[in-house]
Amino acid sequence: MATFSLLILFSLFLVLPPCLVADPDQLQDICVADLNSDVKLNGFACKPAAKVTEADFFFKGLATAGATNNTMGSLVTAANVEKIPGLNTLGVSLSRVDYAPGGLNPPHTHPRATEVVFVLDGTLDVGFITTANKLIAKTITKGEVFVFPRGLVHFQKNNGAAPAAVIAAFNSQLPGTQSIAVALFAATPPVPDHVLARAFQIGSKEVEKIKSRLAPGK
Ligand code: GLV
Ligand code: MN
């Protein structure tokens, strides 16, 4: 009986879609993205093998701190397939986040990836919120790691007096980022005021105020 159940379980794994992984597995060694191709598929078309070079697998953009002199006091530098074409079909990517003292990487989600951060420098208050609205939060410091499960809203805040930085790893070549406040209050075309007023239980004047603060270019 046990052998029979195991056999059923095993055959289910063979036929079920790969729902436990993020990006699909690759079917070849490399498929360097042709970012200019008109062919649209789940990922990017591969460029001809003869045109592939080491530059397709290289990026130095995470070597230096990003400029954090903006309204949030933080900057995310992505190292995904759009920057490293060699990541196409490999299902992984990184980013670096720099935080000024007091800086916030505001609440956001990645629809296609779980994220693991490793603190390079400083101390951060980090957290995510489950679908049961439970906040899982911790203060993490240099050398420590924290996980933000796929799709859940999360944030990092530098409450220290010194700058902070993390390297974030994702199980997707292009995790996608949806910043909650910007998605709701700075969408194009705009989300109607009455929707936001009702959702947040505030007046339309307050909605307009938030919209003007988050308008692109502000
Ligand atoms: C941090 O949360 C990031 O998305 O880089
Ligand atoms: Mn994130």
Largest sheet: 5 strands, antiparallel
The average pLDDT value, as a whole number, equals 92
Kindly report the spatial arrangement of strands forming the biggest sheet: 3-4-11-6-9
In CATH, the homologous superfamily of the domain at 56-175 goes by the name Jelly Rolls
The CATH topology of the domain at 56-175 comes to: Jelly Rolls
In whole angstroms, how far apart are the ends?
Answer: 65 Å
| Number of helical stretches of at least 4 residues | 4
Provide the low-confidence segments as ranges.
6-18
CATH class of the domain at 56-175: Mainly Beta
CATH architecture of the domain at 56-175: Sandwich
Please render the helix and strand layout as text.
Blueprint: H1 2-15, E1 40-41, E2 43-44, E3 74-79, E4 93-99, E5 104-109, E6 115-121, E7 123-129, E8 135-141, E9 145-148, E10 153-157, E11 164-170, E12 178-179, H2 180-185, H3 193-200, H4 204-214
Antiparallel strand pairs: 1-2, 3-4, 4-11, 5-10, 5-12, 6-9, 6-11, 7-8, 7-10
Helix pairs in contact: 3-4
Glyoxylic acid is lined by residues 76, 95, 97, 105, 115, 154, 156, 168, 177.
Describe the structure.
The chain has 218 residues and is α+β, with helices and mostly antiparallel strands. Among the domains are: 56-175, Jelly Rolls; 186-214, no CATH class. The chain has 4 helices and 12 strands; from the N terminus they run H-E-E-E-E-E-E-E-E-E-E-E-E-H-H-H. It has helices at 2-15, 180-185, 193-200, 204-214, and strands spanning 40-41, 43-44, 74-79, 93-99, 104-109, 115-121, 123-129, 135-141, 145-148, 153-157, 164-170, 178-179. It has a 5-stranded antiparallel sheet with strand order 3-4-11-6-9, with no helix packed on it. Helix 3 (193-200) crosses helix 4. The radius of gyration is 21 Å and the shape is globular. The structure holds glyoxylic acid and manganese (II) ion. The site of manganese (II) ion has 5 residues, from loops.
